Amino acid sequence: MQILVKTFASLRDVAERETMVCIEEGAVVGDLMEVLFRRYPGLEEALFSSPGELKRFVNILVNGRNIHFMRGMDTVLHDGDRVVLFPPAGGG
Predict the structure, then answer these.
(1) pTM of the prediction?
(2) 90 pLDDT band (50/70/90 cuts)?
(3) What's the CATH code of the domain at 6?
(4) Predicted confidence band of residue 51 (pLDDT cuts 50, 70, 90)
(5) 9 in a structural domain
(6) Cα→Cα distances 16→12, 19, 52, 89, Å
């Protein structure tokens, strides 16, 4: 199946703005992240504080819904889903 992945802000320094990822049926967000980490060195460090633990204020959305309110990294993906990665934002 194909998943569209979009990145924003500082994540564009380590990954493309938009990319299609082919992944097996039944894959979850965690599986997608593993594919992206192999494709884009530096992305894992930008998103995770330790293996499997998102940094504070990092948001991953699947079709506009935050995975925090779904099944987290175990959120099941479907063909044609859109996954958006937002890094922590700073400012004031």
Answers:
(1) 0.93
(2) low
(3) 3.10.20.30
(4) confident
(5) yes
(6) 6, 6, 22, 18
